[in-house]
Amino acid sequence: MRVVLADLKGVEGFVHKDTVVGGYGARLRPLSRVTRLACALRRRLNDVPSITMAYLAAILARAGHEVVFTRDDAPLEADVALVLSSLVDYRHETRWADAARARGTRVGFVGLASSKLPDLFLEHSDFLVYGEPEEAVMRLAAGEEFRGVVHSREIADLDLLPVPRWDLMGAVAPRSSWGAWTRPLGAFPVLASRSCPEFCTYCPHRILAAYRARSVESILDELAMLCRLRPDPFVIFRDPLFSQDRERCLELADGIVARGLKLRFECETRLDRLDDGLLRALHAAGCTNVTFGVESLSPEGLRKVGRRPIPEEHQRRVIQVCDELGIRTVGFYVLGLPSDTWDSVAATIDYSIDLGSTLAQYKLLTVYPGTPLWKQLRASVYEQDWERFDGFTPTFHHPNLSARELSFLLTAAWARFYMRPSFFAKVWRWDRSWALDLARRLDRAASGWHARQEAALMSRTLAC
């Protein structure tokens, strides 16, 4: 059987599917000069196909089937096509599916979006897989005929899964990563665990399955395979909470060193799951980038959405140690929590700059289907276009902020963080004290300029 695995590139802005937002995907929209530049950079520096498809390629190839991978619009001749679904690009995906079916190919959708919103995809497909797709695709590879909604059972022991077959991706194998900006070749996603052990009410990561972690030996074997596939690879650990188990994380870092694996990697975690000793061990193993969620400065606002606040002193200490080790940091922020006001969002933006991470990413709170927050706020959701559930578009009636105010604050956050001298000083790693001092002095002038621009823009916005 010839099987096409389709992880299609988005058609507007920068679309990232993979495990982002639990699999719903995200779209960085070019709302301003800063985000337009960010879109252009990410299209070049964040071009990494889905690890889900690499797992499915391994399962199908192990069963003796021919596997073809594509990210392009032109349908390919095949017996079956499996399409990775998303919310933010679903129209593009269903158009591709319609064209493939017109050529006689049986089409199935996989992923969180088609699992939770099957009505968007069923009429464009022969079947769709509900749940994590690996178990169902094992049955498909064994010859089972699929129709309609096919339920895929959760695989409890992740070590039973084959190693992802990136070598089957051909010319579109992983090429680059935002985190590997100084080495734009050889970036590979890795999942050391599935789902998330936390219970944030807005997060979709827990929708389809419970948290499970792979054994350290299994992860090390996969990393060794990547080193054989491409020397000095850059690994992106896609786990939402990479360092949940400190001892396991230390064992993994020590194992990388003991095996002599030459690689660099990026991980995502909570800052309260990092400390000096763990950071130094990870750095010795090759960690060059750490991403983390701060989300909001308001402890009460975080508690109301099920997120445990992290003391500011600890956050600052972790950033300080990362700076000392040369580890780049990326902070994530969610603007527009239900309890947010103009002042609380402004305080979060100020804090994101003062915290001193290398980069920052800002999104608006989005109420996703299947989350506890969806049950709580569904009556307030007014947006009916699912592609606009992208983290950049207001989707529900906020009790304290209008849609225009939220959009303005989001645009202002991106501009204020990136359009300041000290940002460039940190990115370019100016080590001379006089240069850093000059950049910080110039920041004050930049802050005044942003304030004037924001006041003028807000005046025009509210007048509309």
- Helix fraction, binned, reads 25-40%
Structural class of the helices, strands and pairings?
A: alpha/beta
CATH topology label of the largest domain: TIM Barrel
Count the beta strands.
Answer: 16
Q: Can you tell me the residue ranges where pLDDT is under 50 for at least 5 consecutive residues?
A: 180-184
CATH level 4 superfamily of the largest domain = Aldolase class I
CATH architecture of the largest domain: Alpha-Beta Barrel
User: Strand order across the biggest sheet?
Assistant: 4-1-5-6-7-8
Task: Report the end-to-end length measured between terminal Cα atoms.
Answer: 58 Å
Average of per-residue pLDDT values: 90
Count, helices: 15
Number of domains: 2
CATH class of the largest domain: Alpha Beta
Alpha carbon gyration radius = 22 Å
Query: Strand content of the residues, in percent?
Result: 15-25%
Largest sheet: 6 strands, parallel
- Shape descriptor reads globular
What does this structure look like?
By secondary structure, this protein is of the alpha/beta class. 39% of the residues lie in helices and 16% in strands. The chain contains 15 helices and 16 strands. The strands form four sheets. A six-stranded parallel sheet has the order 4-1-5-6-7-8, sandwiched between helices. α2 (51-62) packs parallel to α5, α7 runs parallel beside α8 (276-285) and α13 (403-418) runs antiparallel to α15. The radius of gyration is 22 Å and the shape is globular. Residues 180-184 have low confidence and may be disordered.
Can you give me a brief rundown of this structure?
With 464 residues, the protein is of the alpha/beta class. Helix content is 39%, strand content 16%.
